[in-house]
Design goal:
Layout lengths: L7 H16 L3 E5 L17 E6 L2 H11 L6 E5 L12 E7 L7 H9 L2 E12 L28 H10 L2 E10 L5 E9 L4 H6 L2 H4 L3
Parallel strand pairs: 1-2, 1-4, 2-3, 4-5
Antiparallel strand pairs: 5-7, 6-7
């Protein structure tokens, strides 16, 4: 992700840094946090509650080693947000950068509702199709190519449509281009006042708090 051929880590770090600056959340959760890309850019390191979620326990272990002293309110979880086996107290901002390409959009948007405070912000980054580049950019790290069968690009218009169905309102949208040449859509959605009828349909695990 950080290699010059790909350069997506840099883009995600830039986007993640911009969101707390704009929305001033008191708490933030990063889905698919890996080893903590962008966490070094968090400025309010003393009082901001920071949550990291990833499927890979090795990433979570690395993130803990890197940031446990710098971020005293850090909470880390290993698990699958789609399967509903990760629950944490709701936050003001959820960041999902290059997550929706690998999950069911409906399921995850519904589950995120229970992780956001009313009026909270969901920030997303999705990759746009390219006529000249593969979905997974070739790089010296050949193992990354194993992701290609699992990536399914999500049209920003579809993401917006499904988000609105679950009570989110698009707040902003913009195009970004990585130094590797790929284009991405950055969107932010505000969660409207929760709809009790919709919450009743949510999976139990998504509504359960620790």
């Amino acid at each position: 992700m950080a290699s010059p051929q790909v350069a997506q880590a840099q883009l995600l770090g830039d986007v993640f840094e911009s969101m707390p600056e704009k929305y001033r959340p008191r708490s933030v959760a990063v889905l698919g946090c890996a080893g903590g890309n962008g966490f070094e850019r968090i400025r309010n390191t003393v009082t901001m509650r920071v949550v990291g979620v990833d499927l890979n326990p090795a990433y979570i272990k690395e993130l803990c080693a890197r940031f446990k002293d710098r971020l005293p309110t850090l909470e880390l979880y290993v698990g699958d947000i789609q399967a509903g086996d990760v629950t944490f107290q709701p936050v003001d901002l959820v960041f999902a950068g290059l997550v929706f390409e690998y999950v069911d959009v409906n399921t995850v948007l519904l589950r995120i509702r229970s992780q956001l405070n009313p009026g909270g912000i969901l920030g997303t980054v999705v990759q746009l199709p390219s006529p000249t580049s593969a979905a997974v950019t070739p790089s010296p790290f050949f193992s990354i190519q194993t992701l290609e069968p699992f990536i399914h690009l999500v049209a920003p218009a579809r993401l917006k449509h499904v988000a609105e169905k679950y009570g989110y309102l698009e707040d902003a949208a913009r195009l970004e281009r990585s130094r590797g040449g790929k284009q991405f859509q950055v969107q932010t959605f505000r969660l409207l006042t929760p709809n009790p009828a919709l919450n009743a349909d949510a999976p139990q695990a998504a509504r359960r708090l620790p």
